[in-house]
Design goal:
Elements lengths: L10 H16 L3 H10 L9 H11 L5 H18 L3 H14 L2 H10 L8 H7 L2 H10 L15 H7 L7 H10 L7 E3 L5 E3 H6 L12 H10 L7 H8 L6 H12 L22 H11 L3 H9 L15 H8 L2 H9 L9 H10 L3 H10 L7 H9 L3 H9 L14 H8 L2 H9 L15 H7 L3 H8 L5 H6 L3 H10 L24 H13 L14 H7 L3 H8 L2
Antiparallel strand pairs: 1-2
Helix pairs in contact: 1-3, 3-4, 4-6, 5-6, 7-9, 9-10, 10-12, 13-15, 15-16, 15-17, 17-18, 19-20, 21-23, 22-24, 23-24, 23-25, 25-26, 28-29, 29-31, 30-31
């Protein structure tokens, strides 16, 4: 008989179960081998994590791991929906295009389709054309109304909504026919104008997906008077993907209207940073910083100046590329007339090291020995993953654990950047693994977890003794090793942080969190301490809905 997923099931717990099963197989456990054969008689050998996940899916009655994962995720969404009030559900539907709760909004609308009829805004977001038509027939003025949730018009709900992949063009056409403003916009709280065009393109900070009917909607809005010189859309598309498609689309639309001069203006409506440059040069600066070669090539071909200053940094874009180690970008800019400028000593040495001019760097460092003790030089090389240059600097006398103004080390910076080769070079030179910087009290390992640097986390997990981060990431095997060597770390305390001891640093998965708690309690973790919210570990577990974990804590 197949196993059944339960309300306590989670993708994290299933992954953890698959890993434990694989470890048992690798250890030659007979019961684990028999279980695998029972779930998948003709399983290919040798067993891998992927095949074990597939076998686990079969135990639950699913043909593929992806199907099991989707079922568990949908169950989690359903639980969330069931716990919501109608007001909560309306909030999700009306704000999902901004918050990113797209899967939740889609599932919610599928289970509660009546929500689409709540208002002109929900009808627009859901693509309920008939409902919208009836509402506008009775109250035409609703076409320009704004909702209380986000201050969006119905047309903005179409542009930012992502639950309707079929009726958006028809819905937008209906609204425009009734007098909707194609240039309606709202302020994001930072003075930035977010228009319908901005919304349907997406991208930007958070890398929001484009609307499923983005290109058709964009053409429709343009034909009805939308302004193609959309500075927020240009910004959003300049920081995510190296693809100039939308930049070119907006440019071509401006050219057709004879308004391309807007891209080269330095006064009025301009996309720029602290250093005033025109929009085309601003976009080139972003392309250089993000190493977007295709975008930079397009911008240079359409009038961007290779010698321009970077609008945020105030230095030439050539220097920015050079000090980032982007040799391909440097070559592109130089082909368009950019030339190297004179650099201050530290930057000059950094440029030499990045360009492989090690002998010149050696000579400069011999003449200016103080640069060896400047953490910014070592940190810059670690960030750029230049392991050879890191080793050279350390061999000349640079201290591996030099801290910057925030207390971060080169290992922090390498972890932040995902620079594995630099991490190995630093560790080989004796870098301290668990130093904490001052701003967030984080170690390089905890930084890697927070930033989603999975390869770095895997590399550092085996050497770190950061019990808080090990607990939070559910690495029970390593946690057990560390606590066996030093049980006092089960009560490692940090002041002025919300979660003072490891018992508050638990993963979201209840079953995995319960395992972490077991290890901490076995090492003598104290349960009477309280966090910044005034809750004990038991109360915090209950607050987070982790019943297994709470029961484990209550049993002590």
């Amino acid at each position: 008989m197949s196993r059944r997923i339960s309300p306590r099931s989670s993708v994290a717990s299933l992954k953890h179960e698959a890993k434990r099963w694989l470890h048992a197989l690798e250890a030659g456990d007979a019961a684990a081998v028999q279980r695998l054969k029972a779930a998948w008689p003709d399983v290919p050998e040798p067993a891998t994590l992927r095949t074990v996940q597939q076998a686990l899916a079969r135990e639950y009655g699913y043909t593929h791991w992806a199907a099991l994962r989707e079922a568990v995720e949908q169950m989690a969404v359903d639980r969330q929906i069931d716990a919501q009030t109608r007001a909560d559900r309306l909030r999700v539907l009306l704000s999902h295009g901004w918050t990113g709760e797209i899967a939740l909004a889609r599932r919610l609308l599928a289970r509660h389709p009546d929500l689409a009829g709540e208002s002109v805004f929900t009808a627009a977001a859901a693509g309920a054309v008939d409902v919208l038509r009836d509402l506008l027939a009775k109250q035409p003025e609703l076409v320009r109304a704004t909702d209380a949730e986000r201050g969006w018009t119905p047309l903005l709900h179409v542009a930012y909504g992502r639950v309707d992949a079929q009726h958006a063009v028809e819905t937008a056409t209906l609204l425009l026919d009734h007098g909707a403003d194609p240039n309606a916009q709202f302020d994001d709280g930072w003075g930035n104008p977010f228009t319908a065009v901005t919304g349907l393109i997406g991208q930007g900070e958070g890398n929001k997906p484009a609307h499923p009917q983005a290109e058709t909607l964009a053409a429709l809005l343009l034909s009805r008077g939308a302004d193609p010189f959309d500075t927020q859309a240009l910004y959003n598309t300049s920081i995510v993907h190296d693809d100039p498609q939308w930049t070119a689309w907006l440019w071509d639309a401006c050219v057709r209207q004879g308004r391309e001069s807007l891209w080269f203006a330095t006064e009025g409506r301009v996309l720029s940073g602290p250093v005033r440059v025109h929009t085309m040069n601003y976009l080139l600066g972003n392309a250089v910083s993000n190493r977007h070669l295709q975008r930079a090539t397009w911008l240079l071909a359409h009038g961007a100046d290779a010698t321009t200053l970077h609008s945020y940094v105030g230095r030439s874009v050539h220097t920015v590329a050079r000090l980032a180690g982007y040799t391909d970008m440097v070559a592109l800019l130089e082909a368009q007339g950019a030339r190297a400028e004179s650099l201050p000593p530290r930057d000059a040495v950094l440029a030499q090291l990045l360009e492989g001019e090690n002998e010149g760097a050696r000579a400069a460092l011999a003449a200016q020995g103080e640069l060896l003790h400047d953490p910014q030089l070592l940190h810059a090389l670690a960030t750029r993953n230049r392991a050879e240059a890191v080793r050279l600097l350390l061999s000349l006398g640079a201290a591996v654990d030099m801290r910057d103004a925030t207390g971060a080390t080169a290992l922090h910076r390498a972890a932040e950047a995902g620079a594995l080769e630099a991490i190995d070079a630093l560790l080989s030179a004796g870098a301290s693994v668990d130093l904490r910087e001052r701003r967030f009290q984080g170690t390089p390992f905890s930084w890697s977890l927070h930033l989603g640097r999975h390869a770095v986390s895997t590399r550092l997990a085996g050497v770190t003794r950061d019990v808080r981060a090990l607990a939070r990431s559910g690495r029970t095997a390593r946690l057990r090793e560390v606590l066996r060597d030093d049980p006092t770390l089960a009560n490692h305390r940090l002041e002025q942080v919300p979660d003072p001891v490891p018992l508050f640093c638990l993963p979201d998965d209840d079953a995995l969190a319960a395992e972490v708690v077991t290890e901490l309690l076995a090492a003598g973790a104290e349960t009477e301490v309280r966090n910044a919210a005034g809750r004990s570990p038991y109360e915090e577990a209950m607050f987070r809905g982790m019943e297994l974990t709470a029961a484990r804590l209550q049993a002590t």
